[in-house]
TrEMBL record:
It is an enzyme of class 1 (oxidoreductase). Keywords: FAD, Flavoprotein, Membrane, NAD, Oxidoreductase, Transit peptide, Transmembrane, Transmembrane helix, Ubiquinone. It catalyses: a quinone + NADH + H(+) = a quinol + NAD(+); a ubiquinone + NADH + H(+) = a ubiquinol + NAD(+). Residues 113-447 form the FAD/NAD(P)-binding domain. InterPro entries: FAD/NAD-bd_sf, FAD/NAD-binding_dom, NDH-2, NDH2-like_C. GO terms for molecular function: NADH dehydrogenase (quinone) (non-electrogenic) activity. This is NADH:ubiquinone reductase (non-electrogenic). Pfam families: NDH2_C, Pyr_redox_2.
Amino acid sequence: MAGTTLAMRSLVSPIMRLSSVSRSTLTTTSQALRSKPLRSNGLSIARVARRGYADAAPTPSPAPKPKKRFRALRWAWRLTWLSALGLIGATAYSIYDLRHPEEQYEPDPTKKTLVILGTGWGSVSLLKKLDTENYNVVVVSPRNYFLFTPLLPSCTTGLIEHRSIMEPIRNILRQKKATVKFYEAEATKIDYEKRVVLISDDSEIKGDISHTEVPFDMLVIGVGAENATFGIQGVREHSCFLKEVTDAQNIRKRIMDCVETAMFKDQTPDEVKRLLHMVVVGGGPTGVEFAGELQDFFNDDLKKWIPEIQDNFHVTLVEALPNVLPMFSKQLIDYTESTFKEEEITIRTKTMVKKVTDKYIEAEVTNPDGSKSLETIPYGLLVWATGNAVRPVVRDLMSQLPAQANSRRGLAVNEYLVVNGTENIWAVGDCAITNYAPTAQVAGQEGAFLARLFNTMAKTDTIEKELQTLSNEQSLAKTDEDRNRVFDEIRERQKQLRRTKQIGPFQYSHQGSLAYIGKERAVADISWLSGNIASGGTLTYLFWRSAYLSMCFSSRNRVLVAVDWIKARLFGRDVSRE
């Protein structure tokens, strides 16, 4: 124990000595610092302290408010985004609604049978707005789809796929509240006396029954018109028409067939020029738009992938009248002709086709001095885009009605579109003769008018039945109070009946005319207030595209058409031949 204590003392004594030395050293250093300022890099501690005090951060002042510049642009950008999101949402909902139709119910068999012939603009506009629960509706047409014809010229060059502008009629009918029957058949005869329509199945696959008849109480004829050849020899045998999807497909094949045949080994120069000469007969919107689309196809794609045809490919537009697009203003006609001249499209006005062969057409040309001469025009592709003719089923009905004896171009109708000489047959579209041009715009408005008319007629019948019931109830009433109550209801129904019957005759509202003329340009003659707005150029072309896109029947068509335009912009048109 004593040894341990001695050892501890020996360890503590050096530590105590070290501590005393340290205290004396610190004391000396402190006195030195107080007596003599310490310098570091030439600066005294006092100066450093003063600088530190001077460099202390001042109290931050409030940040200035941002200037109100570009506020309108910021709001415009936000509204654009919101509009885009709203458009996407509306499109998504529309597609979902189309893909998930509600359950339908069978209509009352005691109600009238309404038969609609055709699935064109007039018939589909009628079906779209018709309350099908008021009638037993039957649709008969040889094609089970609606075709958006204004964009059909774009299908001929592959800019738009043909199925993008087709809306299945089953999709349209499935969206109605009550079931609508559809028969894919050709109406061959309308027997007005028996009130039946004879139909025939013209498909490649037939069942045991391929001919039958459909009875009707009310009939709407919307079968359109067929291509008019004006009795010119060879037109039907050697020309391509442009009314149906099959026509556009045939033209597309024929274009590439002419190009590839012209490139055949040892082909003569004259034959190459003939094969690559594309002739369009008809200076209306269809002919002008097809000529513009065809020239775009050559400029954008054909001469890029097949440069050998560059010097020989040529488009000619033939028109019997003094100018093209006669329904447009003189200003737009001149603009169209100048644009065609830039595109090197030849316009042959005052040129009437007299004969068509498999390699050339014979045309009568009116010279500037008034004289006429016969000219031969060779061609590789001939597209006939002019004139409408009456279909056989319409011609047969006209022969049954004495009131139609003087009609030549179609069924004469009154201001309510009722066929003259009948009381329960209506006609819309190209098969009806009205005071308006046979266009898709007119047919669409006629169909919408008939839908309002038929809906009104159904409401009228319902109110009249209610009035008859109330009248019987009033006669059986036992007290004055009951009779007065029924009388008040009768007066209310009579007011409703008068309001319902207040529907005027059909009046066409012209919204304007549009036409694509190639080179990403278009012309528009738009009705505005009491006048018209005539415009042409690239901005009009953008308006033309947006207008046609909005006019497509469904969101499905709009999306498909927009995708086709994007594909063509990115990859070009397809130059393969199917």
